[in-house]
Amino acid sequence: MSTKNASAGLWSTLEPKLSPFILETLATMGFTEMTPVQAGAIPLFMKNKDVVVEAVTGSGKTLAFVIPIIEKLVRLKKRFAKNEIGALVITPTRELAQQISSVFSIFLKDSVTPLLKHALITGGTSTLQDDICYIKEFGPDILIGTPGRLEDLLVGRGAAKNHVNTKELEILVLDEADRLFDMGFSQSLNNIIAHLPKQRRTGLFSATMTDGLAEIVRAGLRNPVRVMVKVEDLVSKDVQRIPAT
User: Fold this and answer.
1) Where does the DEAD-box RNA helicase Q domain start and stop, copy by copy (predicted)?
2) Domain count, the chain
3) Cα dihedral angle (72, 189, 222, 53), rounded to 10 degrees?
4) CATH no. for residue 212?
5) pTM
6) Which of 2, 157, 193, 205 has a CA that sits 20 to 30 A from residue 229's CA?
C-alpha cells in the first residue's frame, strides 16, 4: 500500500477537472475550497485507484466519495438497467445513511443529472419487499444503506433473489468502516463483497485502522493508496457540515 499526503486547495484546481454542475452545486453550498481528505481522495478515485482514508467526522469525507461516485457514473454516459446498480455505499447506521442520501440529493437534481437516481436502503421504516418494489419501479443507480438490509437485498436471501444486478458495479464505499466492525457487521460485509465484481473501485473510510479492517483491505481492495488526515489538519479551519459528517 502506498501513501499519499493530502493537501487542500480550490475546487477549481482539482485534477481531473470536475463537471460544471458539480462546481456550481459546491458554490451554492458555500464550499470554495477542498478539505485535505477531499483533495487527497477524489483525484485517486477519479484515476481508478482504490483508497483507504483515515479521517474523522468533520473532515469532509462525505463529499470525498459522493463527488467521485457521481462524476464516474455521469461520465459513463450510459443508462443502467432498472435492476442494475453502479455504486454502493455501506454505512453502520440508518442515521448516517440518511445523511449521506441527503448529500446525494443536493447534487442529483433531475434537471442536471436525469440519468442518475439513488435510493436509501436501511430497513426499519420499510420492508424488504417494499425495497424490492421500489427498485423495480424506479431503478436507482446508487444504493446507500446498512449492511443487514443490503445483504438481504444483494446476496439474495429468499424473496430478494435476482432483483438487484451488481455485475456493472463501478464503486463500493465502506463509510465509518471501524464502526461497521465494532457493531458486528464483518460477516455481512464479507458476504456482500464476495457478491460484487472484482473489477470495481473501492473506498474504505475510517477514523482508525484495526486488524479486522486490515483484513478487509487485503481481501477487498487492489493496491490501495492510503490517505491520512491528522486531527491537527482540521484545527483553525472551517469544518464542512453537510450535514455533520
Assistant:
1) 11-39
2) 1
3) 70
4) 3.40.50.300
5) 0.89
6) 193
